[in-house]
């Protein structure tokens, strides 16, 4: 995802939520590089127990499609083949229903 963000190829807004909140571990991750040695371009957000509870987080990574009313309308657990295509399709479906 970081490579796609770096290349401006993410067709939607994406935020990386560090589930453990603002911690030394989270700050160290943001100051590090991705698996390819590239600086992070994703927008990081510090998570919280309340956010995890609201989204009913079941595992990591998790991708949530959030509607215009800040409600989760779809979730993808893990990192399946074709994640970007799947997320794009889910966004289109969510917009059709709103």
Task: List the uncertain runs.
Answer: none
Query: What is the CATH architecture term?
Result: 3-Layer(aba) Sandwich
Please name the CATH topology: Glutaredoxin
- Oligomeric nature of the chains: single chain
Structural summary, described in words:
The protein has 98 residues and is α+β, with helices and mostly antiparallel strands. It has one domain: Glutaredoxin, CATH 3.40.30. The chain contains four helices and four strands; from the N terminus they run αβαβαββα. Strands 1-2 form a two-stranded parallel sheet. Helix 2 links the parallel strand 1 and strand 2. It starts with a helix and ends with a helix. 2% of the residues are buried. The mean pLDDT is 89.
Key words describing this protein structure:
Glutaredoxin, two-stranded parallel sheet, 98 residues, single chain, alpha+beta, 19% strand, two-stranded antiparallel sheet
List the helices and strands and how they pair.
Blueprint: H1 2-6, E1 15-18, H2 24-30, E2 43-46, H3 49-55, E3 62-66, E4 72-77, H4 83-97
Report a brief summary of the structure.
The protein is an alpha+beta fold and 98 residues long. The protein has a single domain (2-97), classed as Glutaredoxin (3-Layer(aba) Sandwich).
